[in-house]
Amino acid sequence: MQKIHVGLCGLGTVGTGVVNVLENHQEQIKHKLGCEIEIEKILVNDLDKPRDVVIDRAWLTTNPDELVDNKDIDVIIEVMGGIEDTNKLLERALNNKKHIVTANKDLMAVHGQKLLRLAKANKCDILYDASVAGGIPIIRSLSDGLASDHIEKIMGIVNGTTNYIMTKMTDEGLPFDQVLQEAQALGFAEADPTSDVEGLDAARKMTLLANLAFKMELHLEDVDVTGIRDITQEDINFAESLGYTIKLIGIASIHEGKAEVSVEPTLLPKDHPLALVKNEFNAVYVHGESVGETMFYGPGAGSLPTATAIVSDLMEVVKNIRLGSSGNTYVDPQFERLLKDDNEKFTRNFIRLEVNDKAGTFQEITNVFSNHAVSFAKILQLPGEEEGTAEIVMVTHKISRGQLLKSLAQLEELDVVRRLISHYRVDGEE
Amino acid sequence: MQKIHVGLCGLGTVGTGVVNVLENHQEQIKHKLGCEIEIEKILVNDLDKPRDVVIDRAWLTTNPDELVDNKDIDVIIEVMGGIEDTNKLLERALNNKKHIVTANKDLMAVHGQKLLRLAKANKCDILYDASVAGGIPIIRSLSDGLASDHIEKIMGIVNGTTNYIMTKMTDEGLPFDQVLQEAQALGFAEADPTSDVEGLDAARKMTLLANLAFKMELHLEDVDVTGIRDITQEDINFAESLGYTIKLIGIASIHEGKAEVSVEPTLLPKDHPLALVKNEFNAVYVHGESVGETMFYGPGAGSLPTATAIVSDLMEVVKNIRLGSSGNTYVDPQFERLLKDDNEKFTRNFIRLEVNDKAGTFQEITNVFSNHAVSFAKILQLPGEEEGTAEIVMVTHKISRGQLLKSLAQLEELDVVRRLISHYRVDGEE
């Protein structure tokens, strides 16, 4: 029986998971592929670190050359993370005709298109389904299952840490800092949570999904990113009283060939499928012209779900090797990169203002909005926290981002407006 | 540019959808595949029927030979339905080395394994992702995306008609017959709704999913099927007061190499992801050993979602033709067909009894259950509709089907028991 030899870069929790999944599903893999998969070398930082898995010491090395220059290795599985050094390593591997499976969304969001093209030029595969929503085969579904559709919009909860935090803040009324600490203690948040909390991790994943869905080469810099750090319990409560739940949502949409990608706190109707996705779970909602709404739901991360996605990708790579059909998973972008400007981005908005509570205030404010043709679906006015102040909470009809920004700028210049407390996108309803 | 020629069998709503999707996505398909797809012939019953789509009259034929024996045709798309005659036609097509894409779950549930083997022997592909939950790439996800996992359980809402009926009965308190009529008027139910309402349609789809998930050749006859016709508003209300929603759920599970597949009305906790799937939508919940819970949600049928799934399958067939890798999508079953017997099927149950309301009744009943080691999580006793009667509503802990059936048989022999009103499976909780 033919053997395919794998070099594994990284032996953290995901790498250990890959070793376990390969071992536990050996028979299944052999049956399906008609060949064996064998780990040849594992790249680690420390040969002597105690491991959760029994590993042949001869497999371990601290020298990447023993993997990427190794004539016996057919496929590199990259689960060590990092961007620039890892990119150089994978470029070398591809030039040495090694196929690649990676879970590294940071790398793929920055260098993905170059790596994919290099792979194709070398007749190699590079698969990365594990990099977005580990337990959900979303990349495969976008590139194959929905291949014949025109995808108009993707909305995703693609970061488990922030969804966990938003769930606890919403359901238990706890403040951000306390929930973050809990999440760190439970292992749902990193010691340095910046990349999750600021929305960068989600932005990387949305870049990958938008590229595939819209067949366009979008860059990480094209994503408008706002994190969840400033969301308060009052925001959540006002949203709730108006029938909404606040989630960190990545949205990618396309209209007349122009794309828009953002990651930002978003108010969704409480019964929207994404509003019901709780805790560390991920979900990706896809709207296709023909298929209508579909949603994919599952664990976003975790050692075993991610390892399973990696081994499924590995099985596809091996199948292609066996059939002589490698190097055909990547398709060049079909469309030119075109982005909407602020006057082409339409959305509803939730806005909270603190104002002086005196006669004429409300009219001054509505004047500003009507100057910019902004109209409202819902308006609440309540006594402010401080004597002599009031709070105004509004949900606009669909307006352009240009209209929104100009209105807010002009409002902040009014004497009666003490401050703009917060404003968020509203989506998921007609 | 190379051209792939397609023969389309059937030009109903789905067939018309296929023609439209192929036409509207020509550029996208050419870009992705590097070749053109052209319809060569369309098999219809009536050449002169008015159509919703502009069709070259020369494409139409009433003679199947012009498709299956046509040397110019590479791929047959079968969307005409039917079982035995259609099977013979597809067998001929395969023996003539034509690849097949079909949306016909009735056919695939009965003859699928034989057709898949025949395709493989002829180095042809036969793809059928459109046959289950049209808008959801679930077959692809089970066979590729989750290929490296051990799938332990699938729970599916795979019939839109019955889910629509159950939703209306639950949310609007309407009786079965009225909702069925409404569904027929809206086109969500067939004029003859038997196959949907009795659960047979769902059973066919669950057979296909279970075969793939468990890598075992299960037959339609292996599925225990109960429909929704006998569910009453009282069942729904009692379920609701205990925290459950009733849905028609297909369940396939495997334990120690033995499988179990059923389609039956099932009580799910109100916040279970499947309980939240409303109206004609479908969803398939998959539990894998490594991946944990994932769920796929989308439209179950409809002309365009199904046509999209068909064209996505067609694109895979064409890709395989171009790469010379046809005939490798099917994998022989890995495991012997083994089924659980009644003593190996464990579940919780919801049971309603009408009893004589006199001293000692309750004890007689609980005696029967305790003789069979059946214990309860929840018990309600209420006055019956008739004077001197009472109703007992119970939810058992997990017991075997053997225990359940023996207890119920013995209960029905008791003088104090007037009748067993209903009993349903309870699932989706620990």
TrEMBL record, chains A, B:
Belongs to the homoserine dehydrogenase family. Residues 350-422 form the ACT domain. Its cofactor is a metal cation. It catalyses: L-homoserine + NADP(+) = L-aspartate 4-semialdehyde + NADPH + H(+). The active site is at 205 (proton donor). Keywords: Amino-acid biosynthesis, Metal-binding, Methionine biosynthesis, NAD, NADP, Oxidoreductase, Sodium, Threonine biosynthesis. PANTHER family: HOMOSERINE DEHYDROGENASE. GO terms for molecular function: homoserine dehydrogenase activity; metal ion binding; NADP binding. InterPro entries: ACT-like_dom_sf, ACT_dom, Asp/hSer_DH_NAD-bd, HDH, HDH_cat, HDH_CS, NAD(P)-bd_dom_sf. Its EC number is 1.1.1.3. This is Homoserine dehydrogenase. NADP(+) binds at residues 9-16. L-homoserine binds at residue 190. Gene3D superfamilies: 3.30.70.260, Dihydrodipicolinate Reductase, domain 2 (3.30.360.10), NAD(P)-binding Rossmann-like Domain (3.40.50.720). The keyword Oxidoreductase applies. The keyword Oxidoreductase applies. One of its GO terms (biological process) is methionine biosynthetic process. NADPH binds at residue 105. Pathway: Amino-acid biosynthesis; L-methionine biosynthesis via de novo pathway; L-homoserine from L-aspartate: step 3/3; Amino-acid biosynthesis; L-threonine biosynthesis; L-threonine from L-aspartate: step 3/5.
